[in-house]
Design a protein that fits this description.
The complex is a heterodimer. Chain A is mainly alpha-helical. Chain A contains 13 helices and six strands. Classes of the chains: A mainly alpha, B mainly alpha.
Chain lengths: ~280, ~270
């Protein structure tokens, strides 16, 4: 009995609470980025990906994270923050912190991938491709509100709600992975591009200013309020669900576009000599 | 044509973008995207400047999504029009919107945005065959809310729901609004555009009614609760025939919406 319990605890401890936007939204981020790559960056990137677009591989990292070869990436999805929104390096997290904080190592993963691509002359083609795919996926995750682990809101991350007469409850964090957008818009990938790839050059310059850590810090301010939108075990009816959803869908959808522009800025800096360089820290 | 016509264009949404009343969100998006494709560059730039640079497609279902929070638009949910004796709010409200948008610079920011959202949604619903009823002929509106049929896939559902969403989804389950629009809005002539956009809102309503009224003669009226084996069953031929009507109505709605926007914002 004790062995069984320990096994269950071990499995639970190894299961990341939240991994990612769902596949459609990651692909949308990458497609918007693709539309903003410079010709030179796109040419180099697609050559490294065997003539596939970055959108093709937007969800790849999620698909391989359970394999032995890529298990080292399983913690590269979330980012940990103090209550005031200051980034915490996951490896420096207090050992008393819940596992979810110590597993929130997306920025470390992104730093490694970006550093590898900066020195890609020494990498194999496969390694270049893998690191591009890591960057594409992690940049999507860094714009998903549920990937921001505030150390004082760990219990809130477990909040579930009930919709109408359903007997099962739904995870609030999972809501932010896809339902928040899909329950308002039924867009296909090209439609996300049509809707969100329309910002002025001035606005894009403003959004892509600074480092990735600056972007994460800015996002944290936008994402933290989501925990005030829900109560534990909140019961939403057919009548109350829609107004509740209306508080969230616009921000979530817009962040997909923002993620796309920033991913393009990062990749352009890596693969186009003439483009401004972007740093993670 | 000049007989009493009642238009019931109801806008109650049950949940998650799936409309119990009115075209579903994908059809509304398709209509506004067709309209967008036919805007003059000037009209497109001007209307998008009024809605924070977004596409009008973004707001195609705003009225459904924000009904609970909007006193004004919630109460115009049921739309009745009788020729010579308007009994509801749909026709006069949309007429008002079109008139106000004709002088859009005089509107407050809030009213301007909401009038655009109203146009983007309501003109689409005016073209939904399941929303155009003849009051004095057979009270056919009852068929929508009180009668079930068996859809071609074997599921029992209200006749209204079939027209709002299931018909389009059954034949094109993987289409998004761009796919729908590209499929419907191809190789159409300027002569066709001129013909279907001739006249104004009243003529377009009458056209919808004339084109759509036969749908109420097709199904046997069996009240809700009738055993499934006794209900009318839609055949694949009927689905395809009805789909042709729905396709035409979607295209007309998009072209007519473009005309309204070009006239208002293309100056």
């Amino acid at each position: 009995m004790k062995k069984i319990l320990l096994s269950i605890i071990a499995v639970l401890a190894l299961t990341p609470a939240v991994k990612a936007w769902n596949g459609a939204l990651h692909t949308a981020v990458a497609a918007i980025a693709d539309a903003n790559l410079t010709a030179e960056a796109r040419k180099s990137i697609e050559a490294a990906l065997d003539n596939h677009s970055i959108a093709y591989y937007a969800y790849w990292m999620e698909e391989v994270s359970d394999t032995e070869q890529y298990r080292h990436t399983e913690n590269w999805h979330n980012v940990a923050l103090t209550p005031k929104g200051k980034i915490i390096a996951a490896k420096k997290a207090d050992k008393s912190d819940a596992g979810v904080v110590r597993r929130a190592d997306a920025l470390e993963g992104l730093s490694l991938a970006v550093a590898a691509l900066q020195n890609r002359a020494s990498l194999s083609k496969q390694e270049v491709a893998d690191n591009i795919r890591f960057v594409v996926h992690i940049m999507g995750d860094l714009h998903c509100p549920s990937h921001y682990v505030f150390t004082d809101l760990l219990e809130e991350r477990k909040i579930k709600y009930r919709y109408d007469k359903e007997s099962k409850t739904r995870s609030y964090m999972k809501f932010w992975e896809g339902d928040v957008v899909h329950h308002t818009f039924g867009w296909k990938v090209n439609e996300f591009v049509h809707q969100l790839n329309r910002l002025s050059p001035e606005k894009v310059a403003e959004l892509t200013k600074g480092s990735v850590c600056d972007w994460v810090t800015a996002n944290a301010k936008v994402y933290r309020p989501i925990y005030s939108y829900i109560e534990p075990n909140q019961h939403l009816t057919a009548k109350t669900y829609r107004p509740w959803l209306n508080k969230s869908f616009e921000m979530a959808t817009d962040q997909i576009g923002v993620a796309g522009y920033r991913l393009a800025a990062l990749l352009n800096g890596l693969f186009d000599e003439s483009a401004p360089k972007k740093s993670v820290k | 044509m000049k007989s009493r016509v009642i238009i019931l264009s109801a806008l109650l949404s049950l949940f998650i973008g799936g409309n119990a009343w009115g075209w579903g969100r994908d059809v509304h998006a398709t209509i506004t995207y067709i309209a967008e494709r036919h805007l003059t560059p000037e009209a497109k730039a001007n209307i998008e400047a009024c809605i924070d640079g977004r596409s009008i497609v973004y707001y195609a279902s705003w009225m459904d999504n924000f009904r609970e929070e909007s006193k004004q638009w919630r109460h115009s949910a049921y739309y009745y029009v009788e020729t010579g004796k308007p009994a509801g709010t749909a026709y006069p409200e949309l007429s008002t919107t079109i008139k106000k948008l004709g002088n859009y610079k005089a509107l407050s920011e809030k009213e301007l945005k909401e009038r655009i959202y109203h146009l983007a949604h309501a003109l689409g619903d005016f073209h939904c065959p399941g929303h155009t009823y003849s009051q004095n002929e057979d009270r056919s509106w009852k068929l929508n809310s009180h009668y079930d049929v068996v859809f071609v896939d074997g599921k029992v559902m209200s006749y209204h729901k079939i027209w709002d969403t299931n018909l389009m989804r059954y034949l094109h389950p993987s289409f998004g609004y761009m796919d729908f629009a590209h499929s419907l809005d191809c190789n159409i002539s300027q002569e066709y555009i001129d013909r279907v956009t001739a006249g104004g809102l009243y003529e377009w309503l009458c056209d919808t009614y004339q084109c759509s009224k036969y749908i109420y003669d097709v199904m046997k009226k069996m009240p809700k609760g009738t055993p499934k084996e006794e209900l009318s069953r839609m055949t694949l031929d009927q689905v395809q025939e009805f789909n042709t009507l729905a396709d035409e109505q979607i295209l007309k709605a998009g072209l007519r919406m473009a005309k309204v926007i070009n006239e208002a914002f293309g100056k």
